[in-house]
Amino acid sequence: MFTIELTLKHTPVPLSVQKKEQEAADGLYTSIVGELRSGSDKLLELTCDQQPGKKISVLASEIASVQIFEKTSTATASGRPPGFFALSADQ
Hints:
- The structure is a single chain.
- The chain is an alpha+beta fold.
- It has one domain (2-73).
- It contains 1 helix and 5 strands, in the order ββαβββ.
- It has one helix at residues 22-38, and strands at residues 2-8, 15-19, 43-47, 55-59, 63-70.
- A 3-stranded antiparallel β-sheet has the order 2-1-5, with helices on one face. Strands 3-4 form a two-stranded antiparallel sheet.
- Strand 1 (2-8) and strand 2 form a beta hairpin.
- The longest helix has 17 residues, at 22-38.
- It is globular, with a radius of gyration of 14 Å.
């Protein structure tokens, strides 16, 4: 199972959908990145393979970042899921 995770502008909680096939996940990732590059205000409708009733619609212009990862690899050695940054309690 592959997860495509979106981070939206001004929203701390990421949105995600899962795809069973790597080819489908890569295609969705590529289409989202294409919309980001074009700067379009297009409405993207995403569906989830793991939860068939789950649907997400988001304006492409509100997406801050997108990442793709294999669900079986979500637990790293540190026990943290993959992401763009990590907040540390050590200061």
